[in-house]
Amino acid sequence: MGRECALLYDNEPADITAARRGNAAAFTRLVEAYQRPVYNLAYRMLGNAGEAEEAAQETFLRVYTQIGTYQAGRKFSSWLLSIASHHCIDVLRRRRLTWLSIEDEEAPAEMLTSDAPGPEDTMLQNEQETTVRKMLATLPPDYRLPVVLRYWHELSYEEIAEATHSTVSAVKSKLFRARAMLANQVGQFQTSG
Amino acid sequence: MAHDYGERMSLMLDGRLNARERADLTAHLATCEECRARWAAFQQVDRVLASAAQVAPAPGFAARFAGRLARQPARRTAPRRVFAGIGAFATGAAAIALLAVPMLLAVWEGIRTLVQGALLLLGSLVAGAPTQLGYSISLAARWLVTLRALNEAGQSIIGALSPSAGPILAGYVLMLVVVVAAWATVMRAVSGRQNTMTLPVLVF
User: Fold this and answer.
1) Average pLDDT along chain B
2) How many domains does chain A have?
3) How far is B86 from chain A (nearest CA, A)?
């Protein structure tokens, strides 16, 4: 499924410690390790490659300034995704004021694939991607976020609750409602996608 | 008829039902066509979402970030921001207190005199019931004291609001507003919510 996050990053503790002391090279290694999950979260939430790049960059800038507040006992990836999540929600709130819609935006960004796909595979992937993008676009942001964290980042309900500053019960409810909304329209997405 | 199994279907997809709950849902699905159709739709949603790969940024993301970081004005790290924040808060609070306290004291003095006058007046009314001469004189004296107190209170308040005091008062209020605005700006900058280039407001 291509969902592997950079969770097996061996030097993470050492790089976090060094980055907290202001070591830019160590922080750059953290960026390289986590760029994909952070960008993916931003892309799934915003549905737009340009905005996703900007949001991912801004997330890392925030992480850079706030890394002193990171608590060593906490999972770094969860903390990072929490910052990215809140930034994306902020972007969506601002976007609502400017009346943009993610439904009529550009083509998907570069896909993550383990092997170079042939033309047919690429076309199929693009169709799937369009369907997924349209599906996510129908969800309110606060329903979309737990879906993204669950499906692409494989966070548990407890981790989603922590990342979104919510409760397990609320996560359970939002995932159900999101799936119910999508289930009502899934056939339509696939025929038009 | 719609049954209330939707949330259990969602939990089932995430593997969060225990054996008994799973068996209960399965048994219901075996007998309810409507819920079977809904379950199929839930599964379809799950398949579509699960089949989409993670999306990667365009190559060179980390290099672009490094460039952006280099172009950023020096951002303070969080612990330094905390100390800076405490310092800015204390300084701002002290400045506002220095400006606001004299004004509040002046107003309070006027109010206090007014209240004292009103209390004296009330006391006179209560004590003024007897009709003997001594009491009448005493009452008149109290009335005079009351009127004097009211006069002083009125003068104190009018003095503060008089045309000659107007510009001073206006300047005072303006200074207070500017200090509060500058303080709010600094606090925002310190908290990292605003570019630190706005800090020159401090100079003011």
Assistant:
1) 77
2) 1
3) 16
Residue B107 has a pLDDT of 72
Model pLDDT for residues A6-24, shown as the tens digit of each residue: 455 778 899 999 999 989 8
CATH code, domain carrying A48: 1.10.1740.10
Examine residue A7 and state whether it is found in any structural domain, yes or no. Answer: no
In a domain, A3, yes or no: no
ipTM: 0.81
Which position has the token pair 């009127």? B147
Question: Chain B contact for A71, CB < 8 A?
Answer: no
Domain boundaries, chain B: 6-51, 76-203
User: What is the domain extent for residue A139?
Assistant: 12-192
Is residue A6 in a domain?
no
Query: Does A2 reside within a domain?
Result: no
- Alpha-carbon span B85 to B6, nearest angstrom: 49
- Name the closest residue on chain B to residue A111, using Cα atoms: B55
